[in-house]
Amino acid sequence: MEIMKTQDSIFANRPAFDVAKKILYGPKDVGFSPYGEYWRQAKKICVLHLLSNKKVESLRQIREEEVVHVVDMIRRMQSSKGPVNMSEIMITYAYDIACRAVLGKKYSGEEEENKVWKLTRESSALFGAFNVRDFFPGLGWLNWLTGMDAKVERHFQEWDGFLNQVIQQHQEGNNDLLNTLFSIQKDETNGFELGMDEIKGILMDMLGGGTETSFVVMEWAMAELVKSPEKMNRAQEEIRRIVSEKKTVKVIREEDTYRMSYLKAVIKEVLRLHPPSPLLMPRESMEETRIQGYNIPAKTRVIINGWALGRDPELWKMADEFQPERFLSDNEVDFKGHDFHYIPFGSGRRICPGIGFALSSIELLLANLLYWFDWKLPGEKQPQELDMSEASGLTVCMKNQLLLHAALHQE
Ligand code: HEM
Question: Which residues are involved in binding heme (predicted)?
Answer without folding.
Answer: 352
